[in-house]
Amino acid sequence: MPLPSQPLADFDYALPEGQIARYPLDDRGASRLLVYGQGQISHAVFADLARYLPRPCALVMNNTQVLAARLVFNKTSGARIELFCLQPYRMPLEKSLQSRQWASWECMVGNKKRLKLGETLEMNKTWGRLWATVMQLGNELALIRFHWEGGLPFAQVLDEAGMVPLPPYLHRLPQPSDKARYQTVYAKQQGAVAAPTAGLHFTPMHIDLLKSNGIEIGYTTLHVGAGTFQPVKATDLSKHHMHAEKMAVTRGFLSWLKGVLPVIAVGTTSFRCLESVYWLGHALLTTGQLPQVLESGYPYLAHHPENPIDTIDALLAHMDRQAIEKLNLDTRLFVLPGYTPQCCHGLITNFHQPKSTLLALVAALVGPDWRRIYQEALAHGYRFLSYGDSSLILPKT
Fold first, then answer.
1. How far is Cα 93 from Cα 370, in angstroms, rounded to an integer?
2. Cα within 13 Å of Cα(346), Cβ side
3. pLDDT tens, 337-368?
4. In the chain, what is the straight-line distance between the N-terminal and C-terminal CA atoms, in Å?
5. Residues 6+ positions from 354 with CB-CB distance below 8 Å
6. Strand ordering across the sheet containing 58-62
7. Is the CB of residue 41 less than 8 Å from the CB of residue 396?
8. pLDDT of residue 229
9. What is the pLDDT of residue 74?
């Protein structure tokens, strides 16, 4: 079934350059917080988030860790070639990051016209040399085989040789401070090439304060892909191709989730992970098969609704049968207006780009009120995009 038609122009607004936050605040918790609750808008600071959360309440955070996925090589001719590592090729992510000799990754290439099939690039580091050989060269991506000296795991090779993959709309190179600031304080599972930016506002002290106020907190993993940066080219948003992103959901998280539903998602990635858990469990419950990939159109089919607890139980029973502690799955979930949330009661999120899939997700929660929210944020001088201010969205229903 096709996705519901959504003209891209319906998600446009004027974003002044001066309100794009190109650098983070020194204090994570000092960001402003726009609160949208039951159709009303108020203004606060992020450090006071607990005052505006409903009770009882649980927050779900995405504990993915951003890789230093941008590698810059310089050819002997002087040409600068940038490789942006997106995902391993035909190898599980964890295994590839642990490899100590070679790794093949699909990469975006900067200055691709200067690169040839079969060519090898080289970089010298204090621990040894790193080579990158072009195995395939496609229109959008290249397949790169990396080899290196020193016996380091590939995750450490990236950390030592790569740069933080800041969003291109910041129009600047990463600085040393970005290595820590473009990472949540609870980042744990390596694999993202973009940060779950709604979580950048939290400090350890803030998390402790939330817990002391009776707010439960759970962690799951969705590795944010480069698709989050890709501009939408289709005039109808429903025709946009959503790239698959990898999820890792543990038995412990699912068991915890059963006791705290509904929840508030910290970020669009946590939202998509939670809703994907429901639909994957739904598919398992209704068809007897667990899809390895949740396709974009599945939630928009004429399904019989299932209790979220039952869908979680179906996933847990599957894990029992397979004797596994973690589900590694992919999701292409595309949340557009007309989508009905199944698990999430609210959302904490930054302010997103015009004509973006992330803005469409916000519109799915609040309907046409998204324009009122964004007009209010612009009028009150909020900082926008990845390093910007935050919002708490509690839909009317």
1. 36
2. 21
3. 999 999 999 999 999 999 999 999 999 999 99
4. 26
5. 11, 12, 13, 14, 15
6. 40-45, 32-37, 390-394, 344-350, 263-266, 58-62, 216-223, 245-250, 326-331, 293-294
7. no
8. 66
9. 87
Instruction: Please state which CATH class domain 8-65+181-394 belongs to.
Output: alpha beta
- Closest CA relative to residue 91, chosen from 350, 328, 263, 290: 328
Residue whose structure tokens are 């990396």: 146
2.170.270.10, 2.40.10.240, 3.90.550.10, 3.30.9.100: CATH of 69-162:
2.40.10.240
Structure tokens at 118: 């079969």
Nearest to 103 by CA among 68, 130, 139, 72: 130
Q: What is the pLDDT of residues 92-126, one digit of tens each?
A: 999 999 999 999 999 999 888 888 999 999 999 98
Half-sphere exposure of 349 (CA within 13 A, CB side): 26
- How many residues are recorded in the chain? 397
Domain ranges of the chain: 8-65+181-394, 69-162
- Whole-model pTM: value is 0.94
Greatest distance between any 2 Cα atoms in the chain:
62
Q: What pairing do the DSSP bridges indicate for beta strands 189-192 and 326-331?
A: unpaired
Count of Cβ atoms closer than 10 Å to residue 186 Cβ: 18
